[in-house]
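Predict the 3D structure for this chain.
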Amino acid sequence: MLAILTAMEVERAAVRARMSGVRPHRHRAGTVFEVGELSGHEVALGMVGKGNAGAAAVAERAVAEFSPSAMLFAGVAGGLRDWLRLGDVVVARKVHAFHSGYSDDRGFRSRPQAWEPSHRLLELARALAREGTWAGDKNRPEVHFEPIAAGEVVVDGLSSDVARYLYDNYNDAVAVEMESAGFAVTSHLNDDVPALTVRGISDRADGAKDAADGADWQAVAAGNAADFVRALAAGLDVPDRGRPAEPAGVPALRNTNVAQGNARVGQQVGAVYGDLNVATRGEHA
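Done. Predicted structure below.
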């Protein structure tokens, strides 16, 4: 089984629309998951709400309740580079918990914490992006493999204190959101259950978030992230209930090919701070 987590209703609805045979599953403490099929696999879908604490708590419940072979987070994020287009997909090759630090009379100093994703999931995601058919041939979003910063605030301004702090201390992050640090630490604390974050860019964190949200970019970005997660799930050999698990709970990979428009899933497989702009594409050191 796979566990897929989201933060907001627009993200949950995007994944839910791509599932079939969905039925509710209530955790004994009240959390409601939706269990169904995605890309031929049994999937448990949960919504964590905004923030890393909620993400960690619900991810822990998902692990305890379903013993998933892998966990995926599908959602939206604000972009921190001007070469990111709205709707592009960012797969986190590192997650920064950017609020970690030390404060005294001399001020605040960052004490970085970061987590890297499952190597197997990341390699499968890279292969899927190279293949290029996960979203069809028309208007396909670009997929970027870059670090993401996860904190406890919504960032919407180029010269805000938090924006400058991110540039000074987490300069490699190309997107910002609020859940992936909690999600990542849960993966780490559960014998490294394979986990990966996939985010669609819904705004540029530049003071125009309300306009981007009003233009429905959250739904577009959430849909693109859900499409990529659906294709990613198709490339995993995940043991169903009643089948013996893979050693150490690590999913094996199989080649996958996702047909145009994701109509069928087969078996093959700057910174936006004015003059501090970084405009190159690709992976950045």
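The longest strand covers residues 70-79.
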